Amino acid sequence: MMPKIMKDKLNLSSTTRKVALVGLLAALALVLSWLESMLPPLPMLPPGAKLGLSNIVTMYAAGAVGLWPAMGIALLKGAFSGLMQGSVAFCMSTAGGLCSTFVMWLLQRPKKRPFGTIGLGVAGAVTHNLAQLLVAILLTTPAVAYYAPFLLLFGVFFGILTGIVLRVVSPFLDKI
């Protein structure tokens, strides 16, 4: 929260603050996506599997600012992937990002909340991987479905990691 003195002095409406927060979250998601693309692929991971650092931002945004701003961030991340890596990356990133953001938003609705941040991270990562796998099947061959067990395993593992990171950084993000 902004101190009352600053809020009065700047005379910012809650809408202006929300737009600014969404802009900051979108910028953070793009930076994390870019940083993650700079990491070399780990030898034990299936092709295309990543940590999902930028998904921490959409996970937070889905609960903090709502579905549509979080979907906008996911769409922006997909467009960024498309610009950096091509149309296949755009399709896969956008499908995974939009589906996982929707699932994470559903799980954070006030009366639902069946999971903590770790469960939220796992649900988001697994949904992201399954949506990307569906796009890969549509764009290539059904044979890529054999990646499903590996993607689920790594989705659970990396979902746990991103959930832990969200738990650690949420208090700092809440202060914004």
Key phrases:
176 residues, mainly alpha, Arp2/3 complex 21 kDa subunit ARPC3, 76% helix
Would you write up a description of this structure?
With 176 residues, the protein is an all-alpha fold. It has one domain: Arp2/3 complex 21 kDa subunit ARPC3 (Orthogonal Bundle), CATH 1.10.1760.20. Helix content is 76%, strand content 0%. It has seven helices and no strands. Helix 3 packs across helix 7 and helix 4 runs antiparallel to helix 5. It is globular, with a radius of gyration of 17 Å. It starts with a helix and ends with a helix.
Write the topology of this structure.
Blueprint (H helix, E strand, L loop, with lengths): L3 H7 L3 H25 L16 H10 L2 H19 L1 H22 L8 H23 L8 H28 L1
Helix pairs in contact: 2-3, 2-4, 3-4, 3-5, 3-7, 4-5, 5-6, 6-7
Give me a quick take on this structure.
This protein is mainly alpha-helical and 176 residues long. It has helices at residues 4-10, 14-38, 55-64, 67-85, 87-108, 117-139, 148-175.
> How much helix is in the residues?
over 70%
The top-level CATH class is Mainly Alpha
Number of helices: 7
Overall number of domains: 1
| Biggest beta-sheet profile | none
CATH level-two architecture: Orthogonal Bundle
Q: How many E strands?
A: 0
